[in-house]
Amino acid sequence: MTSRRDFIKISLIGAGVVAAGAGTYGLIRNFSGKEIKPGKIDDLFRTPTYCEICFWKCAGWVYKSPDGSIWKVTGNDEDQHCNGRLCPRGTGGIGAYYDSDRLRTPLIRTEERGRQVFREATWDEALDYTASKMKEIASRYGPHTLALFSHGSGSSYFTTLFRALGTDNIAEPSYAQCRGPRDDAFLATFGEEVYSPEITDIRDTKCLVLIGSHLGENMHNGQIQEMSDAIDKGAVIITVDPRFSTAAGKSKYWLPIKPATDMALLLAWMHELIYNDLYDKKYVEKYCTGFDQLKAHVKSYTPEWAYGITTIAPDLIRNTAKEMANASPSVIVHPGRHVTWYGDDFQRSRAIAILNALLGSWGRRGGFYMPARVELASFKIPPFPETKVSWQDAFPGKYPLASTAVSNLLIDASIPENNPAFPVKGWLVNATNLLASVPDVRNTLKAIQNLDLLVAVDTMPMEITGWADVVLPECTYLERYDSLRASPHRRPAIALRMPATEPLYDTKPGYWIARQLAIKLGLGDYFPFEKQEDLLDWQLKQVGSSLDEMKRIGVKNFEREADDIYFKDGDDISFPTDSGKIELYSKYLEDAGFEPLPVYTAHEEPPEGFYRLIYGRAPMHTFSRTINNPYLTDLMEENSVWINPKVAKEWGITNDQYIKLKNQDGVVSDFPVKVRVTERIRWDSVYIVHGFGHANRKLTRAYGRGASDTQLITNVKTDPIMGGTGMRSNFVTFVTGEAEEGLGA
Amino acid sequence: MRYAMAVDTRKCVGCSDCVVACQTENKVPIGYCRDWIVEVNDGTYPQLEMEIRSERCNHCSNAPCVRCCPTGASHIIKGGIVLVNSVKCIGCGACIASCPYDARYPHPGGYVDKCTFCNHRLEKGMKPACVEVCPTKCLYFGDLDDPGSEVSVILKKRKWKTLIPEAGTRPELYFLV
């Protein structure tokens, strides 16, 4: 069987051949080295940054008051991620700096895990302790028994450290708890993923289809801006959501689908497009493979068939299919971002990819543009030692097509009773609050109790830092350099983050922490630059810039190497898939023992008196990490549970009442949550915003506010293809009485 | 000169960026705000409608807060901007009671505070902080006496409404519907 890593290797080779032959489409396109001059620079009393409050990484400026204190952060006009406009979290980013609950000094645990009893330590002590424990684990059990869990800009430094140790146990919850199924499904179909920021050409689209994607509540800045542009230009928006989301409120068509049935709708849309000749025939003939199999496959998936499953009227399915076809190829069936819902998420994402292929939107204006990025040079460091035992070897054969390490697999491998081929013994957790991001908290806690070492790097006390043996306090993004941002976009570009001020308290940048650990582990050669700014300056000079220049402009845009943002009519294109075509029918999946075409599977239904737990985002918060930010807490200090008025009436529950939620496995939310009785949610579901219900008392604003969805997600449907944790098969009922007063009341 | 703002309710997603940008720009103490979001829902599932509005002081031409102010702290300057002179203000709260839009709050510094249309920025030729930050570009600002200003243009092009017109305050905050 071809593993995912081999597949990518093949893809790269494929792309090389393509470059010599036809177009250069297929993998990320390059920059020309030719700079685009920025507009006027009117203020020199500011320092550049890019935001770390979410993954969108908008570039901005940090302004200070005359007394030297940080005043405000605004967007950089030259930046494609934000176009000069930060979102509420970016604007409120200064709250991360001013939060008086921040971690202030290294901590070492003095009592058993589960009780937050630490002593303050010096950096030297804390790093020595960490390094000696890591060394001990690596030499006694092998480096493959150490695992890194990471998120955000600091990931690259700790990744270097772990690769230098000789392990590929490097996992980001943003993969298996979020966008992994989507990325891998698009890779399997187009040979290319949708990247971050997504390559959705929303500003020029004529039809935007959102499948449970709540743009406007998830504040993916560039996409929100472009959705607004699309509204101005009269684009048709179709939103599929059991909840009347903000986006649904802006839509011409809202399809209030029965939860967990999206696949039936997607198949019916395919049926409509194919059997009514509404698909882009020329595009499909030229670029796709497996159309005949797909056509036969969706023959029986009529709108009438889907109606019985989705509760969406057949005419509505037909009309929306027509709207998409009318807009084709300027149509986007949005791939979404957080897509780990039901355990067949890879296949649902495949269905979305296939729909886009049928509509000819990939590589077309108003569909998906082909991104370009600046290739930053890597400074020469010693080669990493060979990974003798891979994360995949912990449970051989599991999640065979995962393109990167699966966080939940590494957690499972830390529990000896699961009989992993090797038990993971030590974790380093960087900037991700695993107890609020990975479902089945009980399982994660069990894993933690079996560890020899748990190190947490963070800026804030979080649930995970409360369980750590060593806490290494990082300074916030406003107080540090980080790697250059070189995300793919319409134009290749780079952005600089630099400290606006000295770090508060005894906190340090992630780069410094990783490097010091490396030195103490005898791996200092992998971090040849003592100061990160010297590395950045070296890298910048390789692309014709410098640290001095970037300090002045913050963002530098370049011309693309070629005019290849969209396919041109009649272009011969070889896609970086095994067949060189867009794979409607996937032999790659078939060979791995999975369905080559997406099929509908019925998912679990809520038992009597229970409601499906749906969770999502609020525009002013990112996961659990911003809940204590003073500015953002001020905008939203607790989540509420949305209950349909019919259900509320049945239960005698009223608006603003505090209740607790109990799930199908008897897990009761730690804290009471406020009720919002609203027509905006279906009667078979309830909705809460993710990230609330913090249990760490050291978070003085966030502690005890609202309910944690993660805590209530114990029925996890893991995607057998790539390990994504499906989290929407959990059902809750209401506990009234004991919880009438909110903690905040 | 007559400053006015138009809010496109079809684009506003209620993210509250205007609120926090105003707070940081104007150093509004945490726990208070000069602008805010209102969400209005109508209908029964699944026949629903939603309107989201970014609201603030309406900078009324016929401002009850100015008329009722006993010290003259509340006043109207060039361009029709309603301001509070924090030195003259005794914090009596008459203006707060008189405002039909609930646009004023008692600042912990002992005076009443409200939206200024970011007068300090207008003087430098910049737009209000909320307008400049809005990710959906749903806020339009300018001079109604200038037919070419973006607010004049959009109000000519689109249907709009004002809030509580029956109060007779002649508000200068318009909502595009």
List strands and helices in order, with pairings.
The complex is a heterodimer of chains A (745) and B (177).
Chain A: H1 4-20, E1 31-36, E2 46-50, E3 59-64, E4 70-75, H2 88-91, H3 94-98, E5 107-109, E6 118-120, H4 123-141, E7 146-150, H5 155-165, E8 170-171, H6 173-190, E9 207-211, H7 221-232, E10 236-240, H8 246-249, E11 253-255, H9 262-275, H10 281-287, E12 288-289, H11 291-297, H12 303-310, H13 314-327, E13 331-333, H14 345-358, H15 407-412, E14 426-430, H16 434-437, H17 441-449, E15 453-458, H18 463-467, E16 470-473, E17 493-495, H19 510-520, H20 532-542, H21 547-553, E18 555-560, E19 582-583, H22 587-591, E20 611-616, H23 630-635, E21 640-643, H24 645-651, E22 658-663, E23 673-677, E24 685-689, H25 709-712, E25 717-718, E26 725-726, E27 731-735
Parallel strand pairs in A: 7-8, 7-14, 9-10, 9-13, 10-11, 12-19, 14-15, 15-16, 20-24, 21-23
Antiparallel strand pairs in A: 1-18, 2-3, 3-4, 5-6, 5-16, 17-18, 20-27, 22-23, 22-27, 25-26
Chain B: E1 3-8, H1 17-25, E2 36-44, E3 47-55, H2 64-68, E4 74-76, E5 82-84, H3 94-98, E6 105-107, E7 111-113, H4 119-122, H5 129-133, E8 139-143, H6 150-157, E9 160-161, E10 173-176
Parallel strand pairs in B: 1-10
Antiparallel strand pairs in B: 1-8, 2-3, 4-5, 6-7, 9-10
Provide mean pLDDT of chain A, rounded: 93
Q: What's the CATH topology label of the largest domain in chain A? A: Rossmann fold
- The CA-CA distance between the termini of chain B, in Å, is 25 Å
Q: Which structural class do the helices and strands of chain A define?
A: alpha/beta
How many distinct folded domains of chain A?
3
Number of domains of chain B: 1
Question: Largest interface, per-chain counts?
Answer: A-B, 49 and 33 residues
Helix content of chain B: 10-25%
CATH C-level class of the largest domain in chain A:
Alpha Beta
- Number of helical runs of chain B? 6
The main sheet of chain B orders its strands as 8-1-10-9
Give the helices and strands of chain B as they follow along the chain. Answer: EHEEHEEHEEHHEHEE
Tell me the major beta sheet of chain A: 7 strands, mixed
**Strand fraction of chain A:** 15-25%
Rg result of chain A: 25 Å
CATH C-level label of chain B: Alpha Beta
Low-confidence sequence ranges of chain B: none
Mean pLDDT metric of chain B: 97
